[in-house]
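Worked problem 6 (solution included).
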Amino acid sequence: MLSQEQIERIVADVVRQMQPQMENAPAPDTCFFEDMDACIDAAVRTQKAFVRVGMEKRRVIVEAMRKAAVENAESLAKAAFEETKYGSVAHKTAKCLLAAQKTPGVEDLETRAITGDEGLTLIFPAPFGVIGSITPSTNPVATVINNGIGMVAAGNTVVFAPHPAAKKCSAMAIEVLNKAAVAAGAPGPLLYAVKEPSVAASQRLMAHPAVRLLAVTGGEAIVSMAMKSGKKVIGAGPGNPPVIVDETANIERAAKDIVDGASFENNIPCIAEKETFVVKSVGNALVEGMVRSGAQLIDSAQAQKLLETVLIKKDSGYVINRAFVGRDAGYLLKSAGIPVQGEPKLVVTVTTKDHPFVTTEMLMPVMPVVFVEDVNEAIDCAVEAEHGNHHSAHMHSTNVENLSRASQALDTTIFVKNGPSYAGIGFGGEGFTTFTIATPTGEGLTSARTFTRTRRCTLRGALDML
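Solution. The predicted structure is:
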């Protein structure tokens, strides 16, 4: 009978003998598999070939993926809307274009050189290999484009685990990007997925030893599950972003920005304004401005009817009724038996800081507005409503001290000043975009460099340049 040590030695010898065969194995000609293990094996084989194509070819491949995403943005948006019913085609198209055009690529990777008496050291970003990317139903296609470009730019292949409710549109996005990559010289498909996404498939993806990194853009439960995998995890967490308006703000502009930000994609983005705290001396003016900008104001009795329609009472409080997530304002009002005025972009109601609309992350175009005595109370209320997620927050003010105090108190990954929430991810604001905002694990706004590991190469006693 063989000892454990002998078994381990034999296995190591076999793996060593197989390694050249694995590295030279042809890349697969499909990106969709019945079995997660087969899917990951294909991604491993392709990545070994892909990492050898060189940086310039990688740049060409990434640019081809961008171009394909731009050309197919509207059709991908339509597919996502038809499958999930969340948001709108126009907004989804805008997100696809944003992801295609403002996701950092190969240019995001930087190599450092250190030279001195002892020689030369290079510190450079290297790929992890195969990344497991778990994507949500609320933002499926733009996340595939965003993560696909960033992870491939970093030299990785990706195995996606899309939310089952968005499997068709996610597969469509994967296919579009892969076709462009292969046409541009990729050794095979760079993005993979199983044909039938499931919890079991996601769990296997998290557990598979060949998956070196997990990027999870989804709910709190799936992020927590990934954190228990023992792997490095880049996790996007929940948010309930408040917006503060003080008496120094440009009220008309603030009203428009809040309506535009909170109604974008019917409020499903995790960065979107979810509740407003306004100094009461300008409160009525703000609400009136929001109505002029396309919101419909409802009274407290109507707000109660809406609450009973879109929220579900639990012992621990309220949870959202998933049937109303990402649906438009008119649909919500009609469902609650409230007369609809025109085509409202957002439902607004004046309420208290402990109202369920304030304390619950709604993911639908409902904006509770709370009047407060002064900016200090507004900041305190905002911190409480944000629930310590440290995700996103927004403020309208021309007082630098107030802006600074709020930013420090909230301590969020994204803080937008005097603009709609989506400016914080580069849409109408400066900077690159991302749809994986990793607050719990600390990476913040992810980009290509996030999906690399640092390697160091030292040459002793030469090329010191001295």
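Discussion: Confidence is low (pLDDT under 50) at residues 6-23.
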